[in-house]
Amino acid sequence: MISDKQEQFQSEYQQGKYAFERGQYRLGVQHLEKASQLVAPNSRLGGEVQMWLVTAYQAANQQQEAISLCKKLTQHPHLEIRKQSKRLLYIIEAPQLQRPREWMTEIPDLSKASESEGQYLRGSGTVKKDVSTVIEPIDLTQVNTKDNKFIWVALILILLLLGGAIWLG
Q: Where do the domains of the chain lie, and which CATH numbers do they carry?
């Protein structure tokens, strides 16, 4: 019976952390709440679960629950949990700064864009964005393919530098 409770705790705890790390904050809150009910709240592990829960509450915009639980954790028997909760409480209760609009980048809403826009069609030798735009293929006879010996000059220079570094070293 005890091992079943431990297995259930581990499962809920891991699922809660996994959901939180994937951005599924409400699901993370649900699993972490279940996990916190399955462990002794005054243990170090119970404190860790509750710290994760505070963070999940905050991410899920449940500020009051996050602040309430964090204040409770400032009285936790484990010293490290108390320190972490005090730091986290300070951050949670800090006032939100207003940013000027020019500091922000707006992401355009692409949900109204037509599905046909921006799709490419393949044809015989040409690429078309739509019917009015045709891109001509490049004539490779006009591309300079003559060897200009640059690679040999660069290779000799590199070998001289390496030889000099080895000789001096």
A: 2-92 (1.25.40)
Measured distance CA(95)–CA(101) in Å, rounded: 18
Q: What is the pLDDT of residue 123?
A: 54
The number of beta carbons lying within 10 Å of the beta carbon of residue 46 is 22
d(CA 42, CA 37): 12
Mean pLDDT by 10 residues, the chain (169 residues): 82 94 93 93 93 94 93 94 93 86 79 60 52 68 78 90 91
Phi, psi of 19 (to 5 degrees): -65, -45
User: Contact, 76 vs 82, CB < 8 A?
Assistant: yes
Q: Is 133 left (phi over 0), alpha (psi -120 to 50) or beta?
A: beta
